[in-house]
Amino acid sequence: MKISVELVKQLREKTQASIAECRKALEEAKGDLKTAEQVLKKKGFEAAIAKSERKTGQGLVEAYVHQNGKVGALVELLCETDFVARTVEFKTLAHEIAMQVAAMNPKDIETLLKQEYIRDASKTIEALIKETIAKLGENIVLKGFSRLEIGE
């Protein structure tokens, strides 16, 4: 089956996967965009599992303070290299997790990882992290977090 450039472009914009991966997924899905997204998601999760044993010695601490100034969160997110720690995708992930902590007040890391993501209830925080692992090609570990609230 011939896959159009436009279809590859659409899938790439939705998933941020490479052009080659998008083309392979579309070929496997016989041109169906939704099925190709699922193929890429599955491959991404498989890649995340394969990378889970890699050492994470770099990363960043992200702070988020809610606009009312009464709730804040700190998140320690680790990755393998300083290069990845400086990427927009990694910084965005850390920020999103810090917002999640401020909004949902999880008890511990395990609870946080299982929570529905506040921006997209169809995925968990764990799935959000695995998607970023697939995009960046490095292991990412949520090391810890802290939440503060006035009056608590």
Give a concise summary.
The chain is built from 7 helices and 5 strands.
> What would CATH call the class of the largest domain?
Alpha Beta
Taken together, the total number of domains comes to: 2
Which whole number gives the mean pLDDT? 87
Any idea what the radius of gyration is? 17 Å
Q: Provide the low-confidence segments as ranges.
A: none
Q: At the fourth CATH level, what is the homologous superfamily of the largest domain?
A: Elongation factor Ts, dimerisation domain
The helix/strand order is: HHHEEHHHEEHE
Range of helix content = 40-55%
Largest sheet: 3 strands, antiparallel
> Count of DSSP E strands?
5
CATH fold naming of the largest domain: Tetrahydropterin Synthase, Chain A
CATH architecture annotation name of the largest domain: 2-Layer Sandwich
Query: What is the strand arrangement across the widest sheet?
Result: 1-2-5
Helix-strand makeup class: alpha+beta
From the spread of the alpha carbons, the general shape counts as: elongated
**In percent terms, what proportion of residues is strand?**
15-25%
Termini gap: 60 Å
